[in-house]
Design a protein that fits this description.
Layout lengths: L8 E5 L8 E6 L6 E6 L6 E6 L4 E8 L6 E8 L7 E7 L10 E7 L8 E2 L2 E5 L8 E6 L3 E6 L10 E7 L10 E8 L10 E6 L5 E5 L2 E6 L11 E8 L9 E2 L5 E4 L7 E6 L10
Parallel strand pairs: 5-9, 14-18
Antiparallel strand pairs: 1-21, 2-3, 3-4, 4-5, 6-7, 7-8, 8-10, 11-12, 12-13, 13-14, 15-16, 16-17, 17-18, 19-20, 20-21
Length: 279
Amino acid sequence: MLATPAPDWRPGTLQDPFLSEASGLAASTRTPGLYWAVNDSGNHPELFALGQDGRAIARLPVTGAGNRDWEALASGACPDGQGGGCLIIADIGDNARGRPTVDFLILREPQPGAAQAPVWRRVTVRLPDGPVNAEAIWYDGQTLTLIEKTGRDARAEPTRLYRLDLAASPLPDRMEPAGTLQPLDEAGTRANRITDAVRAPDGRLFVRTYGSVLEALPPGTDGQSATGWQLRTLVTDRLDQAETLAAAPDQPALITTSEGIGAPILRHPRPTGNAGPSR
């Protein structure tokens, strides 16, 4: 059985004046209650450490890479199997669908008091179908999945998923197709503007769109399609320019915010229970 989400509550606002175009949010793997965030294109390559209430804790320059268009941030175990937590910055923004490759910047998660956050590994890959407009990734400690923001026809086509095994040796030079993501009727076309995603500690997958948070059901879950992921609306919060979604590691909750100085932070309870087959 699924727990029924309660109404959202607002623990605070983004308090760092330099975090003005938040495009990625991820929970720390090493410091309880700490979250990391990034800005998108046109901003300095920096990591922002903040509390769940939005208080500014630290701002660390990311060394070894620029910010072409950082659109997502994920956290999890480092893919080398040596222990410790990593952050993955997805430099994937491509509104014009003109980039021949996309970049994933892997950092060993720093302490908030560090002087900088060096890139440990930079992964540059191609997409098998050519350039893709994407702003969302999820990561499970080994496999990185990218979700297209919209289908080629935003109303008629499902969005596509692509997968990369970061533990593979040698590392592939392109991502592999990983199926499609199709909205259910109640999700409507809102699901065709996917701006972030997160895999919760219990394995459930959630995605962020402009105005909504939805749960993604793996193929074959609850009698749904056996060939593609399906979406169902969890909550409609109507945040303007919302591009971030993180899962609280210590409670069944999703944390989200939007672009803009002083943007509100929302906490949405997430359903718990059987996550269905994983892919």
